[in-house]
Amino acid sequence: MRCSDYIGIPYKERGRGRDGLDCWGLVCLMYADMDIDVPSYLHDYITSSDIDSVANAINKNKAHWRKVEAPDVGDVLVFNIMGFPCHVGVYVGQGDFIHSFRGTAVCVERLNSISWTRRLSEVYRWQR
């Protein structure tokens, strides 16, 4: 998985392609590039700014994922925003994760940064 293949892709509400991605769209694209087909969950939430529907979508679809204690490369990180588990990123190793967030293009950030360390809620690994 090369982060450089995704860096700079613009944020796009409900985006699922290289022309624009929301946070789950990035997960879908990265996994597709690894020949893993994960559900798009587009039918499960209205917009990424509707944190209630995103949190419900995440909670509703946990059956396809196995919760793990520590992240490994490719694991999905779930972050709390305003107290709700409604943002995801992909762990890329060495304490870094990649994500797409409203108002920014896809970028890599440190998991232990002041912006994200206290927001990390759970870590999940795809179950085939």
Q: Can you summarize this structure?
A:
The chain is built from 2 helices and 8 strands, in the order E-E-H-H-E-E-E-E-E-E.
Terminal Cα separation, in Å? 19 Å
Low-confidence segments: none
DSSP summary: helix tally: 2
- Give the count of structural domains: 1
Q: Write the element-wise H/E pattern from the N-terminal end onward.
A: EEHHEEEEEE
According to CATH, what is the class? Alpha Beta
Name the CATH architecture: Alpha-Beta Complex
> Any idea of the CATH topology?
endopeptidase fold (from Nostoc punctiforme)
Sketch the major β-sheet.
6 strands, antiparallel
Rg value: 13 Å
Name the average pLDDT.
Answer: 90
Structural class: alpha+beta
Number of E-type strands: 8
How much of the sequence is in beta strands? 25-35%
Q: Write out the CATH superfamily name.
A: endopeptidase domain like (from Nostoc punctiforme)
Shape: globular
Sequence of strands across the biggest β-sheet: 3-8-4-5-6-7
What is the helix content?
Answer: 10-25%
